[in-house]
## 1
Amino acid sequence: MKQINRKTARKSVKQVGLENGFRSGLESAVSEDLKANGVDAEYEAHKVHFTYPPRDAKYTPDFVLPNGVVIESKGRFVVADRKKHLIIQEQHPALDIRFVFSNSRNRISKGSKTTYAMWCEKHGFRYADRTVPTEWMKEKSTATRLQALKEAGIK
C-alpha cells in the first residue's frame, strides 16, 4: 500500500488562495475573515492613479471596505512597496490605507532594527497582524474618507 505524504496531500494556503483568484494565501484569508464578519469588500476592484517618478502608475488596493478604509495585505513588505506607499500617501494624503501583515514584527531588511510595525508608526499608517480588526470593519464612513476615495478614482 502506497503511503501518502501529508504535506503534499494537503494544499497550501497559498495554493488555495491562488486557485480562488488571490495573489497570496494571506489575501485569501483576509477575504474569508471579512466575509465571516459580514463585510462586503471588493478584492482588487479599484485603481488609484499616482505618479511614480518619472512615470504615471496605478495602485490596485487589495480591499476597499464599504466605510472607505483601504486594506493592503502584505506577507513581505519590500523596499519598492514601502516607497510606493509613501508616494501614494504624499499624493493622496486623505486616503485611509491600512496594512494587514502576516507578521508586523518582521524586519524591513536583514540588518535593520526597523520592523514593519515601526515603519508604519513612523509614517502614520495603521496596521494589524493576520486579520482585519473588527473595529476597522465597524468604523463609520466619514465624508473625508469617502471624498478621498472619489478623488483617487475609487467608487
Note: The beta strands are 42-43, 48-52, 55-59, 63-64, 70-74, 97-101, 126-129.
## 2
Amino acid sequence: MEGNISKNFINIIKGVIISIIFTLIILFVFSIILTYTNISENFITPVIIVTTAISIFIGSSIGSLKVNKNGLLNGALIAGIYLLSLYILSGIINKSFNLNIQSFIIIISGMVCGMFGGIIGVNKK
C-alpha cells in the first residue's frame, strides 16, 4: 500500500513537471513570435489560458499513464498542484497580485483539462 502511494506521488510530481516544462516551451515560442511579428498583444491572455489548459492536459495524461485507477483524482491533483505553484510564484514575483476573471477562467479550465487528461491517461493502455 505504501509503495503504491509513493509511486502515485511520483507520477503526480512527474505530471506537474511535464506541465511546467510544456508551458515554458510554448510561452517561449510565443514570446519569440510576439517579438518578431506584428501580432497584437491582445492575444497574450488567450494564449496563456489555452497554453495552461493544454499543458495541464498533457501533464495529467502522461502522469496518469502508470496509474490503474482514480484518473480523475490524479488529474485534478496534477492540475491543482500546477495552478497552486503558478499562483504562489506569481504572488512572490508580483507584489500586487490578485485574482481576476482570467484567473478563474485559468483555474476552471485547468482543473477540467487536468481531470479529463487524468481519465485519458488511466484508460490509455
Note: The longest helix spans residues 2-36.
